[in-house]
Amino acid sequence: MTSVIDVRGLEKSFKKLHVLRGVDLAVEKGGIVALLGSNGAGKTTMIRILSTLLRADGGSAVVDGHDVATDPSAVRRAISLTGQFAAVDEKLTGRENLVLVARLRQQRQPRRIADELLARFSLVEAGSRAVATYSGGMRRRLDIAMSLIGEPSVVFLDEPTTGLDPEARNEVWQTVRQLAREGTTVLLTTQHLEEAEQLADRIAILHQGRIIVDGTLAELRALLPAATKEYVEKQPTLEEVFFAITGEKDDAPEGEQK
């Protein structure tokens, strides 16, 4: 399949700090690819280059058939970017936020688009409320909904669950899975290994400025010695305890603040 994201030899330095040292990455159309790395590994720098917010020092990057350096306008039309914190106006309602973005992107029938996205992201009842009253998960869902206006083919999610509690994180995960089911290509950066395990079709690890491994979870596990069988008493994880006690593993009722 043709790669919708094709990165070759990407380099970026900030004075004497070499952040990216020749990154190669190919992402095929559809599905979710997780980019893992510790703090300072260069994940956000790479996303900023791919979304045309930062120029690379060397190498090349093509997104949806457009070179990020020579045709940035075409790249911006093909993508959306959601950062680590929800970029929503808390004084506006959810519907007003969506209508505003639709108008800024010169979409026809912005109110219809807003209503469709509110329904898609289970925010209809909350749509007329000020975003200041939303929970963290609701704000993040609204933020992702706003980023989809214009039907981008590629969505960049830069650590989308930063600062969220387990319930809100689960809401975001369900939203990301839905995007993939609908055919959107998602490149997700995260420090949380569980998040990559839960969401990603493929996982790339960025370390010391390079992609050192890229494959499915099964392929990555195969790099380690074969598992040995041991009989141990399995204790529930803290997350399992949390959801069992609260009874809120599934989505909360539409519009309910958590």
Present the secondary structure layout.
Layout: E1 3-14, E2 17-28, E3 32-36, H1 43-50, E4 58-63, E5 66-67, H2 72-78, E6 79-82, H3 94-104, H4 110-120, H5 136-147, E7 154-158, H6 166-181, E8 185-190, H7 193-199, E9 202-207, E10 210-215, H8 217-221, H9 238-246
Parallel strand pairs: 3-8, 3-9, 6-7, 7-8
Antiparallel strand pairs: 1-2, 1-4, 4-5, 9-10
Helix pairs in contact: 3-4, 5-6
Give a quick rundown of the structure.
By secondary structure, the protein is α/β, with parallel strands linked by helices. 33% of the residues lie in helices and 25% in strands. Strand 9 and strand 10 (210-215) form a beta hairpin.
| CATH class (first level) name | Alpha Beta
Instruction: Using the 3D structure, state the CATH architecture.
Output: 3-Layer(aba) Sandwich
Strand content: 15-25%
The major β-sheet equals: 6 strands, mixed
Structural class based on helices, strands and sheet pairing: alpha/beta
CATH topological fold name? Rossmann fold
- Helical residue percent? 25-40%
Tell me the total number of β-strands.
10
Query: What is the CA–CA distance across the termini?
Result: 42 Å
The CATH superfamily is identified as: P-loop containing nucleotide triphosphate hydrolases
Mean pLDDT: 87
Number of domains: 1
Order of helices and strands: EEEHEEHEHHHEHEHEEHH
Shape: globular
